[in-house]
């Protein structure tokens, strides 16, 4: 059954005189992908930072699972059920796929701030203690399609597999809501197709916000779209509604979509 897992209301983020996000409201539903599109500088990344707690909003509110999380720190919001991937990779390249996922899973349990190098020396002891962590890692790796690559060192896997690994690391924290910032960036056609299939699989159990410039992927994936320009929402609706919106065509999409 579909339900709203994250609700953002009238979010505003000002940087000095610039309103990078200007009165944006968005609901994320379980089993639905909500894509946010718009030209460079539209405010898409800033919006995801507001939802994850990486930036506090100037005004407006965010709730997750019905709980008001406005102004909470990112770690606390993560514990409330939000997972996010970043445009800039968080992968530790000298470590294996499995170790990266395990570190991400353990970040969920740690009391101290995120310090992966410190934890790494301790991982063997923690892993044997924590059957639940192990199971979470197994599931995240399997779901993200990396089962056969678990022992590979992250620096040796392909770019597309590294993006799958980021998804696995996010899933290992068992989020209800996923914020994905350009998961297809830099991918070739075959890698992009694999990632689209993966995201369709993952969405069944999650609410997902997708920021992505690859419009073929966006229109293949999104159940709803929000179009931002200069910090403001100029349109929001189904893919068919967005395709037919003359204002969106003029401002962003052009003729091909
Ligand atoms: N920390 C900051 N301080 C000042 N201005 C900022 C800051 N972060 C973002 N901005 C500005 O806010 C606006 C929105 O930026 P944002 O990165 O959210 O856009 P975007 O839609 O994600 O762009 P892109 O598609 O290029 O990633 C831009 O004008 C940007 O320069």
TrEMBL record:
PROSITE patterns: ABC_TRANSPORTER_2
Lineage of the species this protein comes from: Bacteria, Pseudomonadati, Pseudomonadota, Betaproteobacteria, Burkholderiales
UniProt KW ATP-binding keyword: yes
GO molecular function list: ATP binding; ATP hydrolysis activity
Domain of life: Bacteria
Keywords, ordered alphabetically: ATP-binding, Cell membrane, Membrane, Nucleotide-binding, Transport
Species annotation: Rhodoferax sediminis
A Pfam family that the UniProt record links to this protein: BCA_ABC_TP_C
Domain ABC transporter positions: 6-255
Listed InterPro entries: AAA+_ATPase, ABC_AA/LPS_Transport, ABC_transporter-like_ATP-bd, BCA_ABC_TP_C, P-loop_NTPase
GO cellular component: plasma membrane
Name listed for the protein in its UniProt record: ABC transporter ATP-binding protein
Keyword hit for Cell membrane: yes
């Amino acid at each position: 059954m579909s339900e709203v897992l994250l609700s953002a209301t009238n979010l505003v983020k000002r940087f000095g005189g610039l309103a990078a996000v200007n009165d944006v409201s968005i609901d994320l539903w379980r089993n639905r992908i909500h894509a946010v599109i718009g030209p460079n500088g539209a405010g898409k990344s800033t919006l995801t930072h507001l939802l994850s707690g990486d930036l506090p909003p100037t005004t407006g509110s965010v709730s997750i699972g019905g709980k008001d999380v406005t102004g909470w720190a990112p770690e606390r919001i993560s514990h409330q059920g939000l997972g996010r991937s970043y445009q800039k990779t968080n992968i530790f390249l000298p470590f294996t796929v499995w170790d990266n996922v395990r570190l991400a899973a353990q970040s969920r349990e740690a009391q101290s701030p995120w310090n992966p190098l410190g934890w790494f020396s301790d991982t063997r002891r923690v892993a044997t203690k924590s059957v639940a962590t192990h199971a979470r890692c197994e599931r995240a790796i399997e779901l993200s399609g990396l089962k056969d690559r678990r022992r590979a060192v992250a620096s040796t896997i392909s770019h597309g597999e590294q993006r799958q690994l980021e998804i696995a690391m996010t899933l290992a924290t068992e989020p209800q809501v996923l914020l994905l910032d350009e998961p297809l960036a830099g991918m070739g056609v075959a890698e992009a197709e694999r990632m689209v299939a993966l995201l369709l699989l993952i969405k069944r159990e999650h609410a997902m916000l997708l920021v992505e410039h690859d419009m073929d992927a966006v229109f293949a994936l999104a159940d709803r779209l929000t179009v931002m320009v200069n910090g403001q929402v100029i349109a929001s609706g189904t893919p068919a509604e967005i395709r037919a919106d003359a204002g969106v065509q003029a401002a962003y999409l052009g003729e091909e979509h």
